[in-house]
C-alpha cells in the first residue's frame, strides 16, 4: 500500500469505515509487533499493548487527526503504551530507566542480497558497532532507515526537536564511519538502507 492509499484508508477509518479499520490492522499489526519487541522482550506484553492500541484507536477515532501519517501515529501510540506499561509494572526507578530506554536493533547478516563474503563480514561488523551506539541513536536509525519516517515525524514521536534528530543520526553515522575507516561514507549509508530493507 503506497503512502496515498495509506492516508486514504486512514481517513476512511476516521470517518467510520470499519473495513478500513480492518485494512489498517492487517497492514500494520505485524510491523508494530516487531517494532514493539525492540523495546521489550516479552511478546505477551507487546501483544497486550498492541491490543490496547487498536481498541483505543477504534473507540476514539473521531478525535484522530485525518492528516496524520498512520504509521508514525501508530508507532508513537504503541511506544507510549509500552513505556506506560513498564512504568506501571516497575516501581524501582533504576529498573524503569533501564527498561524504558532499551532499543534492540539487529539485522540479519544472512540476507540474500549479500553476495560476497567480505560484504557479510562488513554487515556483521556494522551490526556489532550499531549495538554499541546509545539506545536513542539506534532507535532513530531504525525509524529513519527502516521505517523511512521523516525527521519531523521522528521528532514528534520521540518528543525531541528536528535538530536533535538530525544530530543523533549524524553522530551515529559519524561514529560508524570512524569505526570502519576503510569504508566510504556513501557505502555506510547504502549499507544501512540495504540492511533496513532485508
Indicate the multimeric state.
single chain
Structural class of the helices, strands and pairings?
A: mainly alpha
Level of helix content? Answer: over 70%
Task: Characterize the overall form.
Answer: globular
Low-pLDDT parts are 107-114
The N- and C-terminal alpha carbons lie at a distance of 18 Å
What is the name of the CATH architecture of the largest domain?
Orthogonal Bundle
Please count the beta strands (DSSP E, at least 2 residues each). Answer: 0
Total number of domains: 2
Main beta-sheet annotation? none
Radius of gyration: 18 Å
Number of helices: 10
Helix-strand sequence: HHHHHHHHHH
- The CATH superfamily of the largest domain bears the name RNA polymerase sigma factor, region 2, helix turn helix motif
Q: What is CATH's topology name of the largest domain?
A: Rna Polymerase Sigma Factor, Chain: A
**Mean pLDDT over the full residue set:** 78
CATH class of the largest domain: Mainly Alpha
The proportion of residues in beta strands is under 5%
Set out the fold topology.
Layout (H helix, E strand, L loop, with lengths): L2 H12 L3 H19 L6 H17 L10 H20 L3 H8 L16 H16 L2 H12 L4 H8 L3 H18 L5 H12 L2
Which terms summarize this structure?
about 200 residues; mainly alpha; about 70% helix; about 0% strand; 2 domains; Arc Repressor Mutant, subunit A; Rna Polymerase Sigma Factor, Chain: A
Brief synopsis:
With 198 residues, this protein is an all-alpha fold. It has 10 helices and no strands.
Amino acid at each position: 500500500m503506497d503512502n496515498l492509499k495509506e492516508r486514504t484508508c486512514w481517513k476512511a477509518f476516521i470517518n467510520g469505515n470499519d473495513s478500513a479499520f480492518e485494512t489498517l490492522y492487517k497492514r500494520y499489526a505485524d510491523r508494530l509487533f516487531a517494532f514493539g519487541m525492540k523495546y521489550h522482550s516479552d511478546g505477551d506484553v507487546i501483544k497486550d499493548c498492541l491490543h490496547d492500541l487498536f481498541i483505543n484507536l477504534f473507540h476514539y477515532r473521531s478525535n484522530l487527526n485525518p492528516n496524520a501519517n498512520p504509521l508514525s501515529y501508530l508507532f508513537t501510540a504503541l511506544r507510549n503504551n509500552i513505556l506506560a506499561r513498564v512504568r506501571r509494572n516497575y516501581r524501582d526507578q533504576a529498573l524503569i530507566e533501564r527498561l524504558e530506554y532499551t532499543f534492540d536493533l539487529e539485522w540479519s547478516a544472512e540476507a540474500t542480497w549479500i553476495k560476497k563474503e567480505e560484504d557479510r563480514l562488513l554487515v556483521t561488523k556494522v551490526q556489532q558497532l550499531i549495538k554499541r551506539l546509545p539506545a536513542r541513536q539506534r532507535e532513530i536509525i531504525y525509524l529513519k532507515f527502516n521505517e523511512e519516517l521523516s525527521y519531523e515525524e521522528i521528532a514528534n514521536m520521540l518528543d525531541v526537536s528536528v535538530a536533535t534528530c538530525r544530530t543523533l543520526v549524524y553522530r551515529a553515522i559519524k561514529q560508524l564511519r570512524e569505526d570502519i575507516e576503510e569504508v566510504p561514507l556513501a557505502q555506510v549509508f547504502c549499507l544501512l538502507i540495504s540492511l533496513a530493507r532485508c
